[in-house]
């Protein structure tokens, strides 16, 4: 399943998680990255995420999110719903809340933030706007 709007594409390659594509990702994307940023959001299953993580980060496990900047105004975010579902429980969040939390986190990486208090502050502004 694929959803497309101006400068934003959502592709769901994962099994059993079609409802998450209905979350307000387009609005969050605009708040975090602006209208001009071209973004692809892809939901993948564990084996595909493990392959991506191994190929690009040399880590041999599936993770919940990976973000890849392509250039200043484009990038890709991959989210693994099965891993996100497990992590949501660990962090005391609902699954949909955690997926949106991850998406914001990936967006802030795409605009150049590294893990820091400054990144956390930027994420918090966006999370507050969407009650995440």
How is this structure best described in words?
By secondary structure, this protein is an alpha/beta fold. It has one domain (2-129): Metalloproteases ("zincins"), catalytic domain (Collagenase (Catalytic Domain), 3-Layer(aba) Sandwich). It contains five helices and five strands; from the N terminus they run ββαβαββααα. The protein has a five-stranded mixed beta sheet with strand order 1-2-3-5-4, with helices on both faces. It starts with a strand and ends with a helix.
Q: Strand pairing plus helix content: what structural class?
A: alpha/beta
Proportion of residues in helical segments? 40-55%
Question: Could you tell me how far the N terminus lies from the C terminus, measured between alpha carbons in angstroms?
Answer: 25 Å
User: Roughly what is the average pLDDT, rounded to an integer?
Assistant: 91
- As a percent range, the share of strand residues is 15-25%
Low-confidence stretches at least 5 residues in length (pLDDT < 50)? Answer: none
CATH architecture: 3-Layer(aba) Sandwich
The CATH class label is: Alpha Beta
Instruction: Give the strand order, joined by hyphens, for the main sheet.
Output: 1-2-3-5-4
CATH topology: Collagenase (Catalytic Domain)
- Roughly how many Å is the radius of gyration? 14 Å
Note the run of SSEs as H and E.
Answer: EEHEHEEHHH
Name given to the CATH homologous superfamily: Metalloproteases ("zincins"), catalytic domain
Overall geometry comes to globular
